[in-house]
Amino acid sequence: MKKLISSVFAVATLSVMLSPLMQTTNATTFKDVTSSHWAKTAIDEAVSKGYFKGYADGTFKPGAQVTRAEFAVLLDRVSVNEKAEGKGSFADLAGNWSEKEVNEAVAKGFLTPSDYPNGFKPTTPLTRKEMAKWMSSGLATASTDYKQALTDTVDTVVPVAEYFKKTMSKSEYPYVSLMMGTGLMSGYADGTFGGGKTTTRAEAAVILVRLANVQKQSADSFTGLKELRAVGTTGTNMEVITPFSSGVTSFKNVQGKKMKFRNGAGYSSLNYLIFVDSRDWNNKKGIYASVFVGKEDKKYNYNNVYTLFENQTIYPTANDFGLSHYMNSSLSKIAVGSAIQNTLPDKYGYTTLPVFETKEVFKKYLNNNSGVNLWVANNILISSPDASYITTDGSRFVVLDNK
CA nearest 202: which of 322, 332, 52, 76? Predict the structure, then answer.
């Protein structure tokens, strides 16, 4: 259970400084933050609550980079965490303007000194990767629910391009998942999370206002985070985003296990089942919607189905293995999908089922123990989900009617 989830914020009189003489005004109207600025509402709220102040010249400098020291001080102000003694400190902060607040952020569980063996280097611009880890660590320190969420998402599918392109280390999965699942941080229009990018004052203001609200809520109150946790622990978000149930036959029973094609041409395994609710095109539900459902798919009728995206590994054994061998494998309907025919595989960097020169594609993986890993599209009829099942080597998974 969480501890300290309610908060009372005192309006601070101190502010984050780019130097000891900056930020001397607390005006909520800044000449460089117009009424149409994308972050104006959050900037005004962050200033009114004392997280930020403006500069003496009447500006806020929304595009200025935020440093490690500055964001640590901001977290100290926003956080309602209790301080724990003996958490360590940074030697290179002695006498620095931020020393007290940064050490408090350490004591509150946001920062870990061992992550910076060569010193904190307080003036270094903060990266989004650091921001994600700091806030996740702080939430996990205050709440056993959030701490468990980090554990649950170690093996999840993270809905950003870096996950599919394998440019994100596995150690980042939980932190990015917690940020995206709670809405504290989101990805960019190109599908990336941008962990190496730095953060601006405007972005920090938006995120701090969100954090003030998130730390009041339980981890279980965020549907997106529940999906990510379910995928990490069970391999599917079905029980979270759809009305279906698998009863006592968990997908874990069959996850990753080989299914032999009845035509003798090969094997396949199902690794993840990701559901998206696309019945209302203007209100697609599910944290994975933007990863798999593209604007090109609007032409399809989803009224009576839940769209399903499956991560499979196909192991061809027939010398002339092609798409027809897969489609005619005589496996259950849920075990055979189709190509995802929109621009999202290219955008996010995942591989889908080939539709051209398929024999040449599969030939590269003939009798290869690693197989070829693919994402395919499928669907389950709301009116008759019981027709969907998977059987592998004595294990079984069944999609049942409404819970």
Answer: 52
